[in-house]
Amino acid sequence: MLDVTSLSKQFGQTLVLNNLTFDLPAGQVMAVLGRSGCGKTTLLKILAGLETPDTGEVRMDGQSILSVPPELRQVVYLYQEPLLFPHLNVFENVAFGLRIRKVTNEQVDHQVHELLADLELSNQGKKQPSQLSGGQRQRVSFGRALIIKPRLLLLDEPFGNLDAQTRATMQNLFGRVARQYQMTALFVTHDSREALTVGTSFGYLDQGVMTSYESVSDFVNDPRTGVHAELAFWESVQLRGQKAVSSRIPLP
Ligand SMILES: Nc1ncnc2c1ncn2[C@@H]1O[C@H](COP(=O)(O)OP(=O)(O)OP(=O)(O)O)[C@@H](O)[C@H]1O
Prior knowledge:
alpha/beta; Rossmann fold; 2 domains; six-stranded mixed beta sheet; four-stranded antiparallel beta sheet; 8 helices; 10 strands; globular; ATP-binding; ion transport; membrane
């Protein structure tokens, strides 16, 4: 569905994207792990049409999109801070994309109620954005994106501002909804556990170069990603916990 070929971008003397190539089949969530400054925001901005590359090509279903303006690309870009209309309640925020497309009230009612239920927001429809928690605001933001059925969803550390527990809940919810709606998405994060939870395919972006992996084990075992080291760390913490507990239980 998405084909990115030999994309390069330089700001002054800094080469931010270096001949970057990857593809993303329809219905897949590609989790891209990248440290700060690796070029992830520049990549997502180019895909969304907010930045232009120096060289390279971006195709969706075989058609170049580089000369297509952002509003016609059917690409939605979500970042850490959910963008909601402060004067509209949750229902109307989600309904917005349908209203401007002149969808009938009956259809709007049906589609928004169904989506709010999928996002576990059924009881929040009448609230204003200022009355929601961070995780709820992020779910409304997903709802606004999903309702218009974008061809491609771009997520730039969307859960970065949430506490660890809410973040874990959101990762699971995102995974479920992504499968249910067969979303094609590029999800960029610096958190390897998040990448493993949300991704159906995996990439690693480092100094503007993308490595795509054939399998989850190739991703985990590439020492550059640091995933293996992190998993080993958590395993050692768990083992230490088990030893501490068993040393307090008297043996029979
Ligand atoms: N408009 C710009 N003008 C000049 N330099 C830029 C511009 N946008 C980005 N850069 C530089 O390009 C590099 C990559 O920036 P980018 O925003 O893509 O990084 P990132 O991977 O998203 O990092 P972070 O996670 O810290 O936001 C950085 O060195 C940044 O300073």
